[in-house]
Amino acid sequence: MNKILRAVGMLAAALIAFCSVEALRQKAVSREPTAEEVQRTVDDIGERAAREHPELAITDGMKQVAATDAAKKLASQTPRKQASTAADMFWGFDYTNAKARVDYCAARGVDLSPFVAAFNKTHSDELVKARRIYAAEGVDALDYLPKLMPVLKGMVEQDMRDVTTGAQVPLEQACAFFNDNAAKLAELIQMPPQVKQALMAN
User: Fold this and answer.
1) For residues 90 and 15, is the Cβ–Cβ distance under 8 A?
2) Maximum CA pair distance of the chain?
3) Closest Cα to residue 66, out of 98, 41, 34, 38?
4) Which is nearest to 156 in space by CA: 184, 178, 134?
5) In the prediction, which pLDDT does 2 show?
6) Taking the complete model, does pTM exceed 0.85, yes or no?
């Protein structure tokens, strides 16, 4: 397996962010959720990962928990609700890769524009559909970003460490690794198939 595939195999942050956006939307129905509640959602995934997948590294276990939760939730919903849930999950995916990862690299003096351009091009159809779903529901896609960014910051820091471990490159080269392999990484970083199917169904 080449270093790019190994790196993608270690990406956990986007999967976990799926659950965070969906949790925010549920809580926001009755009141504005706090940053602590967002962090608690992520912490709960970590605790479940340690309990349910003790044989796995924590990030791998968290990926398993997040992916399983996404599949179960979608399977229990009507097609219309599935599309809404999948849009939530897409925005977690987008926030992680096109915003939190950008901030991580900017803080280290690296412009991640080449990767972001490739990511946005690769996932343009999903982006259009997610925007359409949120617009129909009267939701601004950026509403939840301020609450999520502090959580995503920590997740992306761990994610970049895991990526460089998988790719066998020094941590200080993580951002350059994303830019140098932008098109390939953008193609390989995907939402779970059942999530994409639910998002694009109609």
Assistant:
1) no
2) 47
3) 41
4) 178
5) 45
6) no
* Interatomic CA distance for residues 103 and 10, integer angstroms: 20
Burial of 39 (0-12, 13-18, 19+ CB in 10 A): middle
Contact status, residue 185 vs residue 8, Cβ threshold 8 Å: yes
Residues of the chain below pLDDT 70: 1-35, 38, 202
Distance CA 114, CA 118 (A): 6
Q: What is the pLDDT of residue 136?
A: 92
Write down the pLDDT at residue 119: 96
Give the pLDDT of residue 129: 95
Distance between CA atoms of 150 and 146, rounded to whole angstroms? 8
- At residue 111, the pLDDT reads 98
Q: Residue 38: its pLDDT value, please?
A: 67
Through-space distance between the first and last CA atoms of the chain, rounded to whole angstroms: 36
Q: Are 114 and 32 in contact (CB under 8 A)?
A: no
Q: Which helix (H) or strand (E) holds 58?
A: helix 58-75
Q: What is the Cα 126 distance to its own chain's centre?
A: 14
Domains of the chain, by residue range, sit at 3-200
* HSE-CB of 66 using CA atoms within 13 angstroms: 30
